[in-house]
Amino acid sequence: MELCWHGRGGQGLVTANEILAETAIASGKYVKAFPEFGPERMGAPIRGFTRISDKPIRVHSQVYEPDIVVIMDGTLVGKVDVTRGLKKDSVVVANYTGSPKELQDALGIDVECHTLDANRIAIDEIGKPMVNTVMLGAVIKACPVVPYDMLEDQITTKFTGKLADKVIVKNLSALKRGYNEVQ
Q: What is the pTM of this model?
């Protein structure tokens, strides 16, 4: 399973990629995960890549033909080529206020699309548009690459000692809403 993440600096893309990778490792999978960005400032487009497999992974390059494309910022649609390398059976999960059909039309593609307003959920639950946990919930609902309960455990582990307990609870709530509200 290969994922390509598209977002902007400061949205938590790197952390989301790490959490998914760490959860996959904890579930017995082999993983390669890394971001791609340069000296850009907060708000600049960035990408991340994740490979998850039952067998050792020998490929050490970016993902060129993703099974899943995660769009963490809907404003990238039409500005960044988020569809590069998509296959007929690829899945797109996007922080996008329109319907899945509207996203397909905006991207000019005919692949399975899932949408949710992750910004609204993040603001409701966390108090700021940090969409990483919301999008993780949406991704594993659309494509259950790791078990939901293990993802909750990994988020708790990752954030313990870095964030206040009440902020961890808010992130877990954001995860659950992303899982439940993705279309």
A: 0.91
